[in-house]
Design goal:
heterodimer, A: alpha+beta, 5 helices, 5 strands, about 15% strand, globular, B: about 725 residues, Aldehyde Oxidoreductase, domain 4, 3 domains, 7-stranded mixed sheet, 5-stranded mixed sheet, about 30% helix
Chain lengths: ~160, ~725
């Protein structure tokens, strides 16, 4: 069954097996790298995208069920002129990441948090990211990057 | 600049060899001084550096980026010595066709071995180019200045660029070892927190990971793994799967079973259907009590240290204890992945392996191809922290690609594949006994450890690849050897750095491996340092001595003392008054007794009713010799500390007699954001001293600091990792 998916403001006509999770549509059909495969069962957060501004684990939600929703991936955070999102800049400024495989998911979770709560406390940031796993131990840098981005966005 | 690797331009450059420089005469020259690091294995300067006619400089390295920041550090070293901007430099890493073979990127040796080679090679190339400029400009070399590859004479104003001198040509020279790298005062990049070259691409979603590799011929493969160790495939009903949508091929060879489909989701579904349609014969082979099993299994026993104490007073007391570590995972966030393509003549494998050369060789032997017919190309993967599934995924992709010529087959392991099939860090048992004098200081130290191996990397042998062992004509797994000095493996850091007058250290290596094991960040050092530093704390307690002072008075190495003192000072060890249910702990080691010095101080709070352990704060002090990138080093050390806290608080592979039960993150939980303490890292920079590897230095000290802090908070000594509320509760009730 063909369906339409709106990703990063663009509409895409798609035809894939209807139970195909969003992750594989983003990566393989739309060639977007931001959402990453980590566990396939929504436990690690590496595949996080935004669905109408709310974090969504793209690895197990069928893409065909998301017609009419506004989906945003890491690639959609940049301004139309290509300027990095304050979160992307802040992650670079803090050098928040080692292998950085989990980082796009972190950035998306943080984007949703800041939208909901522009000035989160440190504890709120940690709680919001508790279901996003990092194995390199970059947690504190990631928290600092989100704090830095929050400050910049509040200015 | 971009760290992305532009192979095409390099290839083009390498074809323009027509104007190669004449090789210098070599007869009758004095013997060459010893070349540093990996330059000794690859003395040809062309193996490391190419100056393109377009002004681009390419540094080729056999070391690979694992998220540890090595390419940035190597770039800094190169740019400084060559006097170029870092943005002029492209790094080409881990390509068996183009890179020098620097072995495995492991063991905290990339800066010390690879970095020292790059520094020397770049310094020699600069000297060579300045010499050529001197001839061209007809001015003495010593008068020339170099800025971003342009050599100029301040007196005449004449100038010439590196690329106009040699652009596109080979240098045809070997390193001489006679050029001295710059003094620290003249460096622009080394010693500074240069941002990671690969991070911008990773933050904007560029295709940089092997998982992102795409080509017009790309198809998706999945392998159906045996449900348990040693299981054999009895019956595989493949015909219904072959008819599934998108399925291109089902591949079976002995116990190896895989499927290739056009789309990824089709491959996943086909693999699931295949898994449901096959029958395996399984046997209960796993030791449910791994530590008792280790102590009873046949072992290779080696005395690695035996210093007899000179005659002296008899000991006042004898203390002993034993410590245990479970099987633990690398737990990469991105499961292993590889892409292989067979064009009928050459097999190209894109892999995030740490040992691209050896793995390519093992794959060639598995497929019965000459070594030069398999090209391995490294691409980034998720952090691996040792030998994970990377090499096995590469072998899987190779087998599937061989069965479907002309298509690039991408194999992505599932989370369950990675959890169940990656080689774990070995379970270990340590028994330690000390005779102490009246003050409680150690007179005789007797230490024994039991472990399965810590090194089963491919090493060119297909018997070390899961796929290689699964074939109808299987390659037998070789019996692993223990590492031996100076790096050691199971017994890494088993010899204490303390100046105990009598010392005996024995390794019992059990080469049978009921659970698959291999190199896990720090190898045996994690358990050995945990044991030594926990026992030192027990001895200090018995001696009624302060744990910091107790260690200092038994150490002779000034740099060891300095890191302990610095950590304790920054932590406020001697100041703070202890709050109820809070405790402080210290752990120290010099990694491998030859790399970085690292001391960790932790404060914990233990909730009295639930025994929940919260790490309140951490301070780490390290001496890594000369520091190339302080921010990168800090990131590695802090990351290592946090990862070790995760291992030491939460992690143990769960299994029953037959199967691995830790198959996802709910059955193998790791540390989360709310559980990560603030960490302060203090670096003792030693410009002019050799680089000391640091990537694995924090693992052992952190575990011991945790145990020691929990002891101070509760009076209970947990000698089994991980240190869980359940264990603590059992001890406190007992």
């Amino acid at each position: 069954m063909p369906f339409t998916l709106t990703v990063n403001g663009e509409s895409h006509a798609l035809e894939v097996e209807e139970d195909t999770p969003l992750l594989y549509v983003l990566r393989d059909e739309l060639r977007l790298n931001g959402a990453r495969y980590g566990c396939g069962v929504g436990q690690c957060g590496a595949c996080t995208v935004l669905c109408d501004g709310v974090p969504l684990r793209s690895c197990f939600v069928p893409a065909a069920s998301l017609g009419g929703r506004a989906l945003t991936t890491l690639e959609g955070l940049r301004a139309p002129d290509g300027a990095l999102h304050p979160l992307q800049r802040a992650f670079l400024d803090e050098q928040a990441g080692q292998c950085a495989y989990c980082i796009p998911g972190m950035v998306m979770a943080a984007a949703a948090l800041l939208r909901e709560k522009p000035r989160p406390s440190e504890a709120e940031i940690r709680t919001a990211l508790d279901a996003n796993l990092c194995r390199c131990g970059s947690h504190n840098r990631i928290v600092r990057a989100i704090q830095r981005a929050a400050e910049e966005l509040a200015r | 600049m971009s760290a992305r690797l532009d192979r095409r331009s390099v290839l083009k450059g390498s074809l323009v060899l027509a104007f190669a420089l004449a090789a210098p005469g070599v007869s009758g020259e004095a013997p060459r001084p010893k070349l540093p690091g990996d330059l000794a294995r690859h003395p040809r300067l062309d193996a490391w550096l190419r100056i393109g006619a377009d002004g681009k400089v390419t540094l080729m390295t056999g070391k690979v980026e694992l998220g540890q920041g090595i390419l940035t550090a190597l770039g800094q070293l190169c740019a400084d010595e060559l006097d170029i901007e870092l943005s002029r430099l492209t790094l080409l890493s881990g390509d068996t066709r183009h890179s020098p073979n620097e072995g495995t990127t492991a063991g905290s040796m990339s800066v010390s071995q690879g970095g020292s080679a790059v520094r020397q090679a770049a310094a020699e190339v600069r000297a060579l180019l300045v010499g050529l400029a001197s001839e061209r400009l007809r001015v003495p070399a010593r008068r020339l200045r170099v800025r971003d590859g342009t050599v100029s004479d301040p007196v005449s104003g004449g100038s010439v660029t590196y690329w106009s001198l040699v652009g596109g040509r080979t240098l045809n020279r070997e390193a001489t070892g006679t050029v001295t790298p710059k003094p620290a005062s003249e460096r622009r990049y080394v010693g500074r927190p240069v941002p990671r070259l690969d991070l911008p691409a990773k933050l904007t979603g560029e295709a940089i990971f092997v998982q992102d590799f795409r080509s017009d011929t790309l198809v998706h493969g999945r392998v159906v793994r045996a449900p348990s160790h040693g299981a054999t495939l009895v019956e595989a009903g493949t015909s219904s799967v072959e008819r599934m949508p998108g399925v291109l091929k089902v591949v079976r060879d002995g116990n190896f079973l895989g499927v290739i489909a056009s789309k990824e989701w089709q491959a996943i579904k086909a693999a699931a259907a295949l898994a449901g349609a096959v029958r395996w014969s399984e046997h209960a082979t796993l030791p449910v009590e791994p530590h008792a099993w280790l102590l009873g299994a046949p072992s290779q026993d080696t005395v690695i240290q035996n210093t007899v104490r000179p005659a002296g007073p008899p000991p006042a007391r004898t203390l002993e204890a034993s410590y245990r570590r479970p099987y633990q995972m690398h737990g990469s966030i991105g499961p292993s992945c590889a892409v292989a393509e067979w064009d009928g003549d050459m097999l190209t494998v894109h892999t995030h392996s740490q040992s691209v050369f050896d793995t390519a060789e093992a794959i060639a032997r598995m497929l019965g191809l000459p070594g030069e017919k398999v090209r391995g190309v490294h691409l980034h993967g998720a952090g691996c922290y040792g030998h994970n599934g990377a090499d096995d995924a590469a072998a899987d992709a190779a087998l599937l690609a061989r069965a479907l010529p002309g298509r690039a087959v991408r194999v992505q392991w599932s989370r369950q594949d990675e959890h169940m099939c990656e080689p774990y860090g070995s379970a270990m048992v340590v028994k330690v006994r000390a005779d102490v004098d009246e003050k409680g200081d150690v007179l005789d130290w007797n230490y024994e450890l039991w472990s399965t191996p810590h090194g089963t990397r491919p090493g060119g042998n297909p018997g070390n690849l899961l796929a290689g062992r699964s074939l109808a004509r299987p390659f037998p797994m070789p019996v692993p050897r223990n590492g031996g000095p100076p790096n050691y493996a199971a017994d890494r850091n088993a010899i204490p750095l303390y100046a105990f007058p009598g010392q005996s250290v024995t390794t019992h290596l059990v080469t049978e491996m009921p659970l698959r094991v291999s190199s896990h960040r720090g190898l045996g050092a994690y358990a050995n340092v945990f044991a030594i530093e926990s026992f030192m704390d027990e001895l200090a307690h018995a001696a009624k001595a302060d744990p910091v002072g107790f260690r200092l008075r038994q150490l002779q190495d000034a740099r060891a003392k300095a890191v302990i003192q610095r950590a304790a000072e920054r932590f406020g060890w001697s100041k703070g008054r202890r709050s109820p249910n809070h405790g402080r702990g210290l752990g120290f080691a010099r990694y491998k007794n030859l790399a970085s010095y690292c001391a960790v101080c932790l404060e914990v709070f233990v909730e009295p009713d639930s025994h929940a352990i919260q790490v309140v704060r951490a301070v780490l002090a390290a001496d890594a010799g000369e520091v190339v990138n302080p921010d990168g080093l800090t990131n590695q050390l802090e990351g290592g500390l946090v990862q070790s806290l995760s291992w030491s608080l939460k992690e143990a592979v769960r299994y029953d007699g037959q199967r691995i039960l830790s198959r996802d993150w709910s059955t193998y939980p790791i540390l989360t954001f709310s559980e990560v303490p603030p960490v302060e890292v203090v670096l003792l920079d030693r410009p002019g001293e050799p680089f000391l590897g640091a990537g694995e230095a924090a693992q052992g000290p952190t575990a011991a600091a945790l145990a020691n802090a929990v002891f101070e908070a509760t009076g209970a000594r947990v000698r089994d990792l991980p240190i869980t509320p359940q264990r603590l509760a059992a001890l406190r009730k007992g």
